[in-house]
UniProtKB/TrEMBL annotation:
A Pfam family the protein falls into: PRAI
A Gene Ontology molecular function term of the record: phosphoribosylanthranilate isomerase activity
Gene3D superfamilies attached to this UniProt entry: Aldolase class I
PANTHER family according to UniProt: N-(5'-PHOSPHORIBOSYL)ANTHRANILATE ISOMERASE
An annotated GO BP: L-tryptophan biosynthetic process
Keywords recorded for this protein, A-Z: Amino-acid biosynthesis, Aromatic amino acid biosynthesis, Isomerase, Tryptophan biosynthesis
Pathway entry: Amino-acid biosynthesis; L-tryptophan biosynthesis; L-tryptophan from chorismate: step 3/5
Annotated EC: 5.3.1.24
InterPro entries: Aldolase_TIM (IPR013785), PRAI_dom (IPR001240), RibuloseP-bd_barrel (IPR011060), TrpF_fam (IPR044643)
Name of the encoding gene: trpF
Source organism per UniProt: Ruegeria faecimaris
Boundaries of every N-(5'phosphoribosyl) anthranilate isomerase (PRAI) domain copy: 6-210
Catalysed reactions, as listed in the record: N-(5-phospho-beta-D-ribosyl)anthranilate = 1-(2-carboxyphenylamino)-1-deoxy-D-ribulose 5-phosphate
Protein name according to UniProt: N-(5'-phosphoribosyl)anthranilate isomerase
Coiled coil: none
């Protein structure tokens, strides 16, 4: 049996949620970055939760969020985890964990070998790491850009002290190779399973999850 878990990120509609859960995703991500084509309000997220089966983790994705924003999200939608996708410091991660009592996934953007040091730093405070391609400086979005980093940077480095996910430019056609090269046991995708920005494609979601699980 495969031990690879999949997170489908940026769900915006009930049929996307059902498609991801039916395909076997273990985590579903809901995006609260206002400039994202995948943005949902806390009320929309709460309504989408009605389509999430028990046992599938609901993850709130935020970027350098204030307590005010996090309060407004967590008051309305009972999330299982928080994904911090900005430049949150170690201290801010600790503060958020203490205030909300939820496990935190800290995102680390990688473009070259020097960026890997941040993974060790955040291992001390985060519950999981998400290793994503660093967004280009010109990009409006800090994630969800469909860009991959050089997976060879992770080759041979299978274990950190915390569980981690691989993200960035993954799609049904390359996820097996990414898993093989990096040893990732968890993978995350947003744009690679969409027919247009913010619109998940059920067949692509299914193909992605199947390919990831088969590769595990
Ligand atoms: O997806 C977005 O629009 C987004 C916006 C702002 C911050 C993060 C965002 N996505 C984060 C994710 O978790 C993505 O799954 C990850 O960056 C990989 O994206 P992709 O390369 O499109 O699969």
């Amino acid at each position: 049996m495969s031990d690879v878990s999949v997170k489908i990120c940026g769900l915006t509609a009930p049929d996307h949620v059902r498609a991801a859960a039916d395909a076997g995703a273990r985590y579903l991500g809901f995006n609260f970055f206002p400039k994202s084509p995948r943005y949902v309000s806390p009320q929309q997220a709460a309504a989408l939760f009605e389509h999430v089966p028990v046992g599938v983790a609901k993850v709130a994705l935020v970027v350098n969020a204030t307590d005010e924003l996090l309060d407004s999200i967590t008051a309305v939608a009972p999330f299982d985890m928080l994904q911090l996708h900005g430049s949150e410091s170690v201290e801010r991660v600790q503060e958020i964990k203490a205030r909300y009592g939820l496990p935190v996934i800290k995102v680390v953007g990688v473009a070259d070998a020097e960026d890997l040091a941040a993974i060790d730093t955040y291992c001390d405070v985060a519950d999981q790491l998400l290793i994503d391609a660093k967004a280009p400086k010109s990009s409006v979005l800090p994630g969800g850009n469909g860009l991959a980093f050089d997976w060879r940077l992770l080759a041979g480095r299978k274990y950190w002290r915390k569980p981690w996910m691989l993200a960035g430019g993954l799609n049904p056609g390359n996820v097996a190779e990414a898993i093989r090269m990096t040893g990732a046991r968890q993978v995350d995708v947003a744009s690679g399973v969409e027919s247009a920005p913010g619109i998940k494609d059920a067949a692509m979601v299914r193909a992605f999850v199947d390919a990831a699980i088969r590769a595990g």
